[in-house]
Amino acid sequence: MGIYLNCKKPYSLFASEKAKPYFVDKSMILKELIPFVQSGKSYICITRPRRFGKTVMANMIGAFFSKGKDSKGLFQDMEISTVKESEKYTSQYNVIYITLNEVPDECCSFRQYMARIKKILTEDLMAAFPEYFLNPAAPIWDILNKIYEEGDFRFLFVLDEWDFIFHRDFVTEEDKREYIHFLSCLLKDQPYVLLAYMTGILPIAKYSSGSELNMFMEYTMASEELYSEYFGFTEHEVDALYGKYLKQQPNPQITREGLRTWYDGYHTKSGMRIYNPRSVVASLTNNNLGNYWTSSGPYDEIFYYIKNNVDEIRDCLALMVSGIPVSAHIQEYAATSMNLSTKNEILSAMVVYGFLSYENGCVVIPNKELMDKFADMLQKEPSLGYIHKLAYHSERMLRATKTGDTKTMLEILEYAHNTEIPLLSYNNETDLTAVVNLVYLSARDSYHIVREDKAGIGYADFIFLPVINKDDDCIILELKVNGTPKQAIEQIKSKKYMLRFMPKLGEAPRYTGRILAVGIAYDKVCKKHSCEVEVLKDNRLL
């Protein structure tokens, strides 16, 4: 056993993960990998956004196949144990497991980074195979080939976070080419390779010039369906976890719909719904709906991708924050560019890194967890121009709505119009919807805002559901282009949208504040807004 060769690390890490209360068994991926191990010289690269279970899967694969520690007991109660003869492959192989996001102390050069990897792996091989008189100065592939030729030993490689080095400041373009060349020499067309299983965020296609790493089959969230169910949680898996949560938590604060609103929104190529796994587990563990996946980075983590071309992406942001899909041509390799400039490059990078979801030719902000980050950016980044200005006034807009101050509401809407926002062509209610979302952006801090929501006998344009204080005002907002606010409020009444806030028979009231009907209209001839606010019901007076 060594640091990389047949190490205990993947076993230990996976055993710890399996012992956690909200563990999800995804061991059937092993059934799909066994044929590749049998045939040999197989190459798989799985790319997903961070926190989508790539490392857990790499640990499981290393733990299952490695001779480093007998793992039969670890897998005996998992789904893979139902596969006939799966035990034949458990703990039977020489596994080289390298976590490529580890760097030497005070590492300041690519040479230091690579020297550590080469030194550790060479020492492991020499300690494990002393009888072959290996030359420590030889390239690693020469050492492995000698072991293969003299002892007929073959190896299974698990390389986690393969693209980590591309994000380090000290790495040059020449270093990147040298790194790709190293991986190619180590793995490509080598008889000692049984399987090379590699994970990362970025696809390898555009990093690898020519044919250096073309032996890998790449599987991404947007372009390949195979293996999709093993990365992220499916609807069924979240249902099962939520059932565990209700049994284990004496004072549950999370609803199943809350998990869907906060952490759903991703899709596989076939359209299967996928939840962010880290956030779901953290939420259930902490008994709280919060921002877990992106909590490690501020809003400028998102702004990084758009700062080079704010002008082209600005309207896209306004539409996406409004819940309106934006058409895009996604090329996942575009994320490798450090100088993103075109709209499609920027949106492609944001899909690859998980900030946007891609489906049916369009990108959207997937869930509330990410929507909060986008809203934070819009309110704090002045370079976003009109979007920032409208978001900045959103606290005033919500306050004016609650107090029935239609004068201030009109002032803000007219301000929006006078800034000559491109969206304010108001060709249809979609354009007006985008602007309304922006002027009520701060409401997301205390409300769950739903568009086109089923209410009464129709669909309301906007429903504001209080999530912080059930005694807060409930808001129903209806839009009219070339209509009047009165018509909007009459529609709210006639279609009984207020029923959306009413408890079901036998239930206690979910909301105890007022129910406000808000009508906002725009006259395309006069180019003027108008608005009204009416109290439909005041539960505090009952």
Mean pLDDT: 88
- Report the top-level CATH class of the largest domain: Alpha Beta
- Estimate the strand proportion: 15-25%
Total strand segments? 15
What keyword list fits this structure?
542 residues; alpha/beta; Rossmann fold; 4 domains; five-stranded parallel sheet; five-stranded mixed sheet; 19 helices; 15 strands; 38% helix; 16% strand; elongated
Verbal overview:
The model has no long low-confidence stretch (mean pLDDT 88). The strands form four sheets. A five-stranded parallel β-sheet has the order 2-3-4-1-5, with helices on one face. It starts with 8 loop residues before the first helix and ends with a strand. Helix 12 (310-321) crosses helix 18, helix 14 (368-380) packs across helix 15 (386-392) and helix 16 (394-403) runs antiparallel to helix 17 (406-418). The protein folds into four domains: 9-230, P-loop containing nucleotide triphosphate hydrolases (Rossmann fold); 235-286, no CATH class; 294-384; 386-542, Trna Endonuclease, Chain: A, domain 1 (3-Layer(aba) Sandwich), CATH 3.40.1350. The chain contains 19 helices and 15 strands. The protein is of the alpha/beta class and 542 residues long.
